[in-house]
Write a structure and sequence with these properties.
By secondary structure, this protein is an alpha+beta fold. Helix content is about 30%, strand content about 25%. It has a seven-stranded mixed beta sheet, covered by helices on one side.
Length: about 200
């Protein structure tokens, strides 16, 4: 493998990761739209359990429910080392990469910040395709993070062919919908900082 191939693969990998992160954020926004969050009780192990109790009180769960907790990586790391008043791990099934609390799988997401989101997967309809990459050296694009749609006479366009450039495009098709309003609950204002206070 030559350096150009390695560079291309690295660029494609980073672009795929960026698309996955953007999809995560859009998915979280979609399933939590219109949900009134409950403020966090704090960062101690007792406060975390109070937050989890509040999360579980809101959704309408039944025997077919499968509850997931979706949080940012900072919260996952805090839960992995949270201790009780006697110095034991409060959540022994947690790791810095995820795990489980009281049988609920904990998922780390780049699309969540300062929130704990409980989702009953049995009440969410979702589908996502893979990230599709394709390139072109003959495209004409608008180099703007908020491009005109549709383009107007004043839109500034850049021709890859005229400028001897090439571009890589990442496309992912996905969709998600709550089947019931009570499928999702949210704890907000979660800010553990660097403290790891026991119960």
């Amino acid at each position: 493998m030559n350096c150009c191939d390695a560079n291309s693969r690295l660029f494609a990998q980073e672009l795929t990761h960026a698309v996955a992160s953007a999809t995560d954020a859009a998915f979280i926004n979609r399933i939590t739209l219109g949900i009134s969050p409950t403020p966090s009780n704090g960062g101690t192990s007792v406060a975390i359990l109070q937050d989890l109790a509040a999360l579980l009180a809101a959704p309408a769960l039944d025997a077919s429910s499968k509850v997931f907790l979706i949080v940012g990586s900072d919260i996952v790391k805090h839960w992995a080392v949270a201790t009780t008043a006697t110095g034991e791990l409060a959540f022994p099934q947690m790791t810095p990469m995820g795990g489980a609390i009281q049988g609920m799988d904990v998922l780390a997401s780049d699309g969540v910040s300062g929130q704990i989101i409980a989702v009953d997967a049995s009440q969410i309809a979702a589908a996502a395709g893979t990230v599709e990459l394709d390139g072109s050296g003959a495209a004409t694009v608008q180099m703007d993070s908020a491009p005109d749609s549709p383009p107007t006479a004043a839109t500034n366009l850049l021709s890859f062919w005229q400028m001897n450039l090439a571009g890589l495009r990442a496309t992912r098709y996905w969709g998600a919908e709550r089947l019931r309003t009570a499928a999702v609950s949210v704890i907000s204002n979660v800010n553990y900082g660097s403290a790891n206070s026991p119960a």
